[in-house]
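Section 3.1: Structural characterization of target chains.
Under the original work plan, the team committed to producing a structural model for every single-chain target entering the pipeline before any wet-lab resources were allocated. The record below documents one such target. The sequence was received from the expression subgroup and is listed exactly as submitted; it comprises 553 residues.
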Amino acid sequence: MFEAVDNLYVRGKLLFTPTALPDLKVLATYAHNKRESGYQFTYSRTDRPDYYDHRVDLSDTPSRTNSKVDIFTVDGSYKLSDALTLNAIVSWNKVKTDATIDFDFTPVASSYGTRDQTTETTSGELRLNYEGERLKGLIGLYHAQRDAKDLSISRTNVPFPRATLVNVLTSTLLAGVPSPTPAQQAAAAAQANGFANLYIAALPVIPVDYSGDQPSTIETSAVFADASYALTDRLSLLGGFRYDHEENTSSTRQSAVFAGTYPTPASFGAYAPYVTQVNAFVAGMIAQANASAPENTRKFNAFLPKIGAKYEWTPDINTSLTVQRGYRSGGSTVNQARSSVAAYDPEYTWNYEASLRTAWLDGTLTVNANAFYTDWKDQQVIVNLGLNAYDYEVRNAGKSHFYGFELEVAQQLTSQLSWYASLGHTKTKFDDFTITAGEDNRNLSGSEFPYAPQWTVALGGDYRWDNGWIVHLDGSYKSKSFSSAGIDQAQDSVVKSRLLFNGRFGFEREHWGAYVYGKNLLNATYSQYTRTDIPIAMLGEPRVVGLTLETRW
């Protein structure tokens, strides 16, 4: 189950250093990348034996992703004096992605679609750098505008929201009972479940012809500064700030049309009135997605200070402690199921970090370590609100935090042999996170962040012979994590731990090289994401062996 990849990458640079202005340097860079490949998320069936080694995708429509990226940057600097340098950077980039997707993963053409996304960004930055005997730093201005278009057309099979149907029907059955007894509630729930079984057998999924257009524009302006001041030969104070202003404008235009056949009430006997009611419920749910949200602009401002200290114990050993505020602006997310633009607030962090930097054995051995703690307010999290599989929004978690440490070691044992190793530990937790959607209330407090393994380990080494032969081997480990947040994440959304080894062996010269490489050499079997509604999973890459030819000039 492998698809061809066609990848073109072109990059060019032009350096301008006029003799009339020897202190001026201008570097222009252009990069172009065009890639045609399989869809970025590739799923495999899991309802068959030995599905890791015998991967099957029954989709009738090839899922493809074609992307084109263009980046143009001009970086200019002018030395005003021995201490002052003026630096200006102007950048433009455009990213266009066209995707064709099969949603049903079966040989039947029942659910499929296309998505075209184009993002164009223009930015400019001006910095004044100062380097004195004790004071070093910079001050600058920044402005950027990002224009995005997102067009989708699809035939979508929405899994029938059984739980919603049972809840609505149970409430309807008890509507005329002022204070229902437990027995009456149980009877109504049993009747609702019995009908749901019959109805969903007739309409297991809700086919919808969907089209959507979600344009957005983001303008960001900022002023920033960063500096260090040497109080003594060993002790330096660190400080800085960034003041950020953003205007975020977005809208949505959606069309959703029922593309199936409603169950006929007459074929349900005594349940006929319920069929009419549920048909209306389905029509209403589709109508809810068949609407538009007008253009809306939101503005955000943030002041982000930074303070710290650095102490050099010796020329090869130093420690530092920094405290700084982090920020990500708020915005709006399009909820396809409800055809709404749901606003979410900015998120803020206070980041505390202690670091150690050391060099030993004449600089051939480095040992570095970081310890960190982050207090997070209004963390932005993507959640499903329960209406159906497309009822996703960004919600703000009230409070959360994470902490941990990182340790890195690297050594050049000889001119030919080098190695490195790293160890990381992170502990995450939502302290206060409640999701409310209608009558649905879920408390996610106490659960861990999605896709945040507690332990990571990496180890690798290189050996280079004098005649041009080289060999490289590395390994990495990630402990288990979870693909979603919630009190049941340990049962429903586990991403298992994995241990991977990669290697490369080859021959190289100054301007060319030829290599045989291997990924996942032990053919470890793991899943990055498993669907619970249908038997498919995003499996990790199996063992891959290949040949690479490189040229350099």
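The chain is about 10% helix and 60% strand.
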